[in-house]
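Dear Dr. V.,

Thank you for agreeing to look over these. As mentioned in my earlier message, I'm a first-year student in the group and I'm still getting used to reading structure tokens, so any feedback on how I've presented them would be very welcome. I ran two proteins. I've put each sequence directly above its structure. The first is here:
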Amino acid sequence: MKPWRGRHVSNRADLWPGIWHAACVAPLLAVVVVFSLGNAWKGPLFMEPLLAVPPALAGIGATMPRRPLIYGGISLVAAIVISTRTFDTAPSLPITTLIAVVLVTAVSTAGAVHSARGSQKLAEVRTVAEVAQRALLRPLPSRVGPLELGVLYVAAAAEAQVGGDLYEVARTPYGIRLIVGDVRGKGLSAVEVAADILGVFREAAHDVYTLAEVARRLDASLARRQATNEEFVTAVLVEIDPALSRLTIYNCGHPAPILLVPCRGDEYSPPQVKVAAVPVPAPPLGLMSLGDCSGAGLSLPFNPGDEMLLYTDGVTEARDAKRRFYPLAERLAVLVQDGSGQALLERLREDVLRHRGAPLDDDAAMLLVRATGVLAAGTDRPDLQRPLSIPQAAQPATP
């Protein structure tokens, strides 16, 4: 299941190309109409230089040389025809017009050829970025065992393909484990840190007994980078035990997950929205040695029909024109009334962008997990096909 990215696509046709073509043709038509009227005006109007405008306008933003060549050819033909009528009165003006049309057409065509080469290079870079994105954030399956997954990723930059937000799921002997995190900073350095964290998680999730130990492995790997003293990652780790209908949360300085619990026995009431906040979050990965991690864990029921939303701070820190943060829990209680699943994530994305009124300042990742209570017939990735065994009992629920 691919993360959503890119701009919202409108169903309305783009009118801008037609408007731009009309702007290119307007000077040419004006000159032709004036000279076609013949004796409507007394004296020369000296409008021939306007014939150099269409190829100049056609070259703006052109990625193929065909468009400025077509407009330049038409303007050149018009200039030749008009020069046969004005050469006797002002011989220098038609010659100057012909030279101007040829030079402007040549310059516009050269610019279009250069733009075409730049567009080709940009397309190649985007292809490489898409490959890097798929290697960093592998497409998640829509279902893992008895869990249904929905994921949505909104990049702060419209053309961005990779960023510092990360997510992953792994079916391990200890339960189905998930991680959602946010690397401090942006750019290639943040992408490198995200790649390292995901690589360690994909290994450690299958090898260690508790989420606290997984977090310590991630923290140690980040500390060994020694690239800068300011590198850290906020993350929340989740372990779901479908057999016992329990989930365990271990939070390292990350926004708390939100549970959507349906009202048992009342199918017409909307689900209850509960913030699953741990007693005391641990410091972010890379800084765990600086604080107390004893209160970073929490165990809660997770029954069939329950849902959990994991997200990054790009959602909650979206500000409107009055600098007010996006009220995620409050808005989620309203949006969930129209249904859940991937459609809920899409409505949530639209609502965040509507609240913001502009593109987001930070990347935003959202992962929605729903317990179905029904085992899947198969999985979509090899690393999610290990048999699920539960060697330990779930921790008691925190009041």
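The second protein is here, in the same arrangement:
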Amino acid sequence: MNKSKLKKTLVMLLAVGAVSLSAFMGLAGPDFKPAVAAAGLFGKDAPDHLTGSFTTIVDDQGEMISLMSRITHVGDQLITAEGRSYRIEKVQGSRATAKFLGMDPQILAYNDFYARQEAPVLKNLAEQKQGSVAVYHTHSDESYVPSDGSEAIPFKGGIYQVGKSLVDKLQGKGVQVHYDQTPHDPHDNNAYNRSRRTAASLIKTSPAAIFDVHRDGVPDASYYRATVDGKSVAKLRLVIGRENPRMDANMDFAKRMMAAANNLHPKIVKEIFVGKGDYNQDLTPTALLIEAGTHTNTREEAALGVSLFSDAIPVVAGVAPAAPTAPATPGAGGKAAGGAWKALGWILGITVVGGLGFLLISSGSWENARKRIAGFGKEFTSFFGPRRPVRKRGNTILRGSCGEADRINDPRGDEVIKEVKDELKKD
């Protein structure tokens, strides 16, 4: 076979292979996904977690601390809701051993702080970020089997409905939310490179906080399930990337959020996991990755979980809107004013009656009392000083006294003026 025929044969084989693969994918349906991603075949850009494959994290005594479908590495950390801090020292297959580092002092302080129901509003942060929140999804295919029928629905996973629950709850509180629903499939670590463009675009809106909403992939739904107010809820995990050079700020925000949310709804946040990666959190110190339940929880459980979590966001992120002024009850102002004048009238009335009674008794008769009142009137008038000079304006005489003027229209004109002047001379 010459080179020309060989080239034609290879082209034909490739064409047949492509058509066959296309036909198979069409028959398999939209829910089909290969057992191993192409990226995984080459060991590059493998996803940070695979649904169904999980790691059990235990302490030095072999007691389970956590379950997660994430790939763990030596140096990763875990902080429980109570504040117990661990660092992974050894990883063997699907089992990781973590060393207890002690109680995290920040978690203890924040737990105590929020338990006393103080409401810290980060005013400087709120002013800087203009009081909005941003939400997006790096793994846009993630879904919930009981509700969605599949663990993954490419480009339109059930995770969008969970994110919308978070958005709706915040908007219901009067918080402005920027929700970007751009898909970032396929589900590999390059998804974070693709979602970085989305996150960077959201950062331009100056949000007070930005949340990348995911779900875990451990098979045991009960690991996340809890009952709150008689309803079944999926708990959350907060994830921080330790390859972010400014990780400390994101970590502090995560601790605040966990403490505040758990104070409002006990244990709604299970833990904080610090893993290998940055998860685009270097873009802002208030960026968090949230895992809402696992694929075996219902979507409704996960939606309720993030909805409860959202109650703590306005206070911690400083985006709580100003409390509305309570509307006045119609007519309440008039009634209050009327009541005040009525009370004043009663006081004045009692004072006048009492004064007249005292005057009558001390004078001995009504006639003497009348004379005293007349004399008091003259004394009272003189208290304001001498009367002002009279000014003529045509046939109108202006006579000033006590800062006011009396107008007297009299046809005698100059004669009346002379009489008034004479009276003033006598005074």
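From my reading of the second output: The chain has three domains: 55-317, 345-383, 386-427. Residues 386 and 401 are 7 Å apart (CA to CA). Does that match how you would interpret it?

Kind regards,
E.
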